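Ops channel
N.P.: pipeline sanity check, posting one input/output pair.
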């Protein structure tokens, strides 16, 4: 059955000949998602809007229960405008802790309406004390400790990703 290898070679040749965008740039539809070099998780843009002012971040997306359980554990550093988002479907009462988390974090609980419910500012590294949401969370956003206060981010602000 030499037909399959020949068809595969033809498909590769055709793919190599297709030009895509005329300027050589990848289009949004074909561009692969960025991946974080440490976690390997997808990285997406996220904005928090506070009193009409937008703050832009690049966040890792922890979707699976295993990814969410690991979170930012063992991470020694994170950029000022980086973070991690934990989408929750369906929305639920959430509780986080800082087990094996080296850096202090702002843990921002986001309601199903994408508005911030509450912020646990400067969560203490390695603490196993539960940090709960004040209502059903549709997502949880983690930023460097103190970053939310630095930018004036507060409950009621909107989060988009």
């Amino acid at each position: 059955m030499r037909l399959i290898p020949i068809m595969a070679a033809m498909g590769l040749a055709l793919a190599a000949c297709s030009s895509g965008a005329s300027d050589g740039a990848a289009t949004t539809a074909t561009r692969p998602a960025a991946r974080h070099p440490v976690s390997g998780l997808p990285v997406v843009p996220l904005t928090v809007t506070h009193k009409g002012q937008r703050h832009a971040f690049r966040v890792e997306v922890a979707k699976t229960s295993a990814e969410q359980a690991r979170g930012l554990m063992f991470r020694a550093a994170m950029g000022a405008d980086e973070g991690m988002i934990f989408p929750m479907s369906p929305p639920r009462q959430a509780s986080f802790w800082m087990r094996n988390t080296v850096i202090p974090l702002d843990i921002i609980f986001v309601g199903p309406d994408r508005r911030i419910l509450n912020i646990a500012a400067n969560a203490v590294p390695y603490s196993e004390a539960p940090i709960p949401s004040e209502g059903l969370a549709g997502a949880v956003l983690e930023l460097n400790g103190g970053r939310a206060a630095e930018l004036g981010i507060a409950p009621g602000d909107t989060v988009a990703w």
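N.P.: looks fine end to end. Residues 33-160 form a domain with the Jelly Rolls fold (CATH 2.60.120.1140).
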